[in-house]
Design a protein that fits this description.
By secondary structure, the chain is α/β, with parallel strands linked by helices. It has 13 helices and 19 strands. Bound molecules: dihydropyrimidine-2,4(1H,3H)-dione (DUC) and zinc ion (2 copies). The site of one zinc ion has 4 residues, from loops.
């Protein structure tokens, strides 16, 4: 089966070119110069004239079905990967979880059981280590060598749930330094945060906005700095800071990078567009919709501006979503009268490609940087390149035909995520995902869905090819 995506502007991390993209089966086989007048007659043709052709988006941070905060993230691998596909994302990297006391491999097997046969697009796993001990350190080696899982998330937050102390973090980093894995860090000082949370509740400060106020930027910056120092002690273990939201944390990352360190970071659309005052501070219990950690930051400070700048300068390498949706009904409502009981998480897997394209429209990012931050760098960072993340011969035919002249209006009425609200209700984007192709198969076209559950494959990842 051959497919020709004809006459579009192919966008890659280093430039653009008008080209016909020839696909045979699941792979891209050639980029052809249309002015050369080739005579290929494919089985299927897609007219991409006037549109961008980009590699399918890679969301390197999702939590489908994550049990958390007394409930579970509302998107299953079925609903969440379908929504991702609608939004031009053709690969997710989800977080498998080892709970404290659990065998790491059992946690991984449980995630395979959730995802297997249910995904609409390709998927891979990072591993959350909920308990660092001799057994889990050994398991890290086994996951890297045999399971295609080459990155491990640790938490400096959530004492009693996922938290690791500095000694555990150091040991995991030393192991990763030996086996080549990436350590991913949730960098917030959870011990100090828990004190602030208890004090706020005791004062009767129970509204959702206090979720943000009790997780100050200084405690994200402190933890980020500490993680960077621990990684240095572990002989420059590769370190990736997840969901970075505060300017002060970004400064520490920038400093480490200026020193030539293997320190990387991602941010998420919610930190680029949403704020503590306007969303988390919405009247009544409304702000619960935007309770996530790290929290939204103040619009009276320069966080969002600095994050866009960080994306331009590559101090922020990637935009992921931290997709962790909860419905208001029965889920966010668990925290009525006590913000500390609101399940932490925002859903956005469907909108990342559009929301970051809006950064191109607004003059924040170049077209190339858009593609790099949503697809190419995630592939390189997490051992999927060049199979994913680039429109090039030999790569998987994961393609999005993006229409810069159409518009997208985000709403709960039209989104496909399993959420009873949208974190971006009413937001308009100049640009729209048109056709989505996953391994050579058209799964979205002209507003219709042609994919199916179970067609997505598990991807065994290699080591990062992004290290200095
Ligand atoms: N942050 C969230 O908002 N949700 C899931 C886990 C996390 O770290
Ligand atoms: Zn986290
Ligand atoms: Zn997360």
């Amino acid at each position: 089966m051959s497919l020709l995506v004809k006459g579009g502007t192919v966008v890659g991390p280093t430039g653009t070119q008008v080209a016909d993209v020839l696909v045979e089966g699941e792979k891209i086989v050639a980029l052809l110069d249309p002015s050369f007048g080739h005579s290929i007659t494919p089985d299927q043709m897609i007219d991409a004239a006037g549109k961008y052709v980009i590699p399918g988006g890679i969301d390197a941070h999702t939590h489908m079905e994550l049990p958390f905060g007394g409930t579970a993230a509302s998107d299953t691998f079925d609903t969440g990967t379908r929504a991702a596909a609608w939004g031009g994302t053709t690969t997710i990297i989800d977080f498998a979880v080892q709970r404290t006391g659990e065998v790491v491999q059992d946690g991984l097997a449980a995630w395979h059981a959730k995802a297997d046969g249910n995904c609409h697009i390709d998927y891979a796993f990072h591993m959350i280590l909920g308990g660092v001990d001799d057994d889990s350190l050994k398991a890290m080696d086994q996951l890297v060598s045999d399971e295609g899982v080459t990155s491990f998330k640790l938490f400096m937050a959530y004492p009693g749930v996922f938290y690791s102390d500095d000694g555990q973090i150091l040991r995991a980093m030393q192991t990763a330094r030996e086996n080549g894995a990436m350590v991913m860090m949730h960098a917030e000082n959870g011990i100090a945060i828990d004190v602030l949370v208890q004090q706020a509740i005791a004062r009767g400060e129970t509204d959702p906005i206090y979720h943000g106020i009790t997780r100050p930027a200084a405690l994200e910056a402190e933890a980020t700095n500490r993680a960077i120092a621990l990684a240095e002690v572990a002989r420059d273990c590769p370190l990736y800071i997840v969901h970075l939201s505060a300017s002060q944390a970004l400064e520490h990352v920038a400093q480490a990078r200026d020193a030539g360190r293997n320190v990387f970071a991602e941010t998420c659309p919610q930190y680029l567009y949403l704020t503590l005052e306007d969303q988390l501070g919405a009247p009544g219990f409304e702000g619960a919709k935007w309770v996530c950690s790290t929290p939204l930051r103040s619009k009276h400070e320069s966080h969002a501006k600095d994050l866009w700048k960080g994306l331009r300068s590559n101090d922020l390498a990637i935009v992921s979503t931290d997709h962790c949706p909860f419905c208001m009904k029965d889920q966010k409502e668990l925290g009525l009268g006590d913000f500390s009981k609101i399940p932490n998480g925002i859903g956005g897997v469907e909108h990342r490609v559009d929301l970051i394209y809006q950064g191109v429209v607004d003059g924040q990012l170049s077209l190339e940087r858009w593609v790099e931050t949503i697809a190419t760098t995630p592939a390189r960072m997490f051992g999927l390149y060049p199979r994913k993340g680039i429109v090039a011969p030999g790569s998987d035919a994961d393609l999005v035909v993006y229409d810069p002249n159409a518009t997208t209006r985000i709403s709960v009425d039209t989104h496909h995520m399993n959420m009873d609200y949208s974190a971006y209700e009413g937001v308009e984007i100049k640009g729209r995902v048109g056709t989505v192709i996953s391994r050579g198969e058209v799964i979205v076209a002209d507003g219709n869905y042609h994919g199916r559950k179970g067609r997505g494959k598990f991807l065994e990842r290699g080591l990062s090819s992004y290290l200095v």
